[in-house]
Design brief:
The chain has about 120 residues and is mainly α. The protein contains 4 helices and no strands.
Length: about 120
């Protein structure tokens, strides 16, 4: 569907952000709870981005919005280097914007397809 181009781009970029989070410990040294958090959050973001590419629903976008909020909070709540914290803040903001952008388009397409809902 041509209408889903924006959603697929946003979902693909979100999946890339999830992959980057999973690879972050190879570039920036992380240990303990921060390492566990980044693996779980990166996996959730990657999985939700991939699911959103094939399933036109707002749920994966909301999952990514929540994951982005956690990523932002954990950058300050968990013990990590400044580089790791800045990485998380940047990825959190990017993920939040992409998930919101994706959610808006999916909701718009849904309302066009179901005008009486």
């Amino acid at each position: 569907m041509k209408d889903l181009t924006q959603s697929r781009i946003a979902s693909g970029l979100t999946a890339v952000a999830g992959i980057w989070l999973l690879l972050t410990p190879l570039v920036i040294s992380m240990t303990g709870t921060a390492l566990t958090s980044i693996f779980i959050t990166g996996g959730v973001i990657l999985l939700a981005g991939l699911i959103q590419m094939i399933w036109m629903n707002v749920i994966p976008s909301w999952v990514n919005l929540l994951a982005a909020v956690w990523l932002f909070i954990s950058a300050f709540a968990l013990t990590m280097s400044n580089g790791a914290a800045w990485n998380q803040v940047i990825v959190a903001v990017v993920t939040f914007v992409l998930a919101a952008w994706d959610e808006v388009e999916v909701r718009d397409i849904y309302h066009r397809m179901h005008p009486n809902v």
